[in-house]
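Something for you to look into today, if you have time. Could you write out one complete protein record for me, on any chain you like? Leave the record below and I will have a look.
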Amino acid sequence: MDEDEINYRVLREIQQMEKNTSALTKLKNSFYSDVSDYLKKLEERVNTESSPQKLSLLKDEMQNIRKIVKSIYEQREKKVLLAAVSKARSGNPNLENMVDVEKKLYDSVLNLLLETRESFLNQEKKDEEKKGEQEEEFSKGDNISSFDIAEGGKEEKKMKPSMGNVNPVVRVKKDIPEFIGTDEKKYKLRVNDIVSLPNDIGGLLLKRGVVEKVELG
């Protein structure tokens, strides 16, 4: 497209083509700079026009062209962003007809998406692996399960008389997979948690060395 071809009619045609197709319309690489130059010339005419009637027409033309150019840009911007998202998700988007400024936008957005995606998904994978390793290590090393807690708690109750409602306060020394206690409650203890546990559960965990008693007062 030559600069002389840029006018209201041509811009309207481009606007309609962008709206009616998912692909980018083929434009001259200098399209945006050519439009900018065209608007500058219109502005110069506005500043020098002496006829009130022509001045009004020129101002209307400038306003309408700015709206059309904004619409064209936003339609194309949306297509560029969707192409970047598609590529980041291993798609094969159509990159044909991108002008240079749009290629830069595409590359920048794609790089950011890939970096963020890799960082998030890798961290999620690492968290899952770490959780699995901790549970496996705990299971092998200490061999504690909900059944152990329940049965061990019963033994604790048999061996020790009730001390009223005073429960031991303990600090957790390592992550403990979720278990169901003798009180039928679910417990999910994490390292450095400070909690008050029923005597039977606290006693068993103290014996296993996975918690330590916190002296109060």
Observations:
- The first strand starts at residue 169 and ends at 172.
- The radius of gyration is 35 Å.
- Helices lie at 8-20, 31-48, 52-88, 100-142, 146-159, 199-208.
- The chain has two domains: 3-119, 144-213.
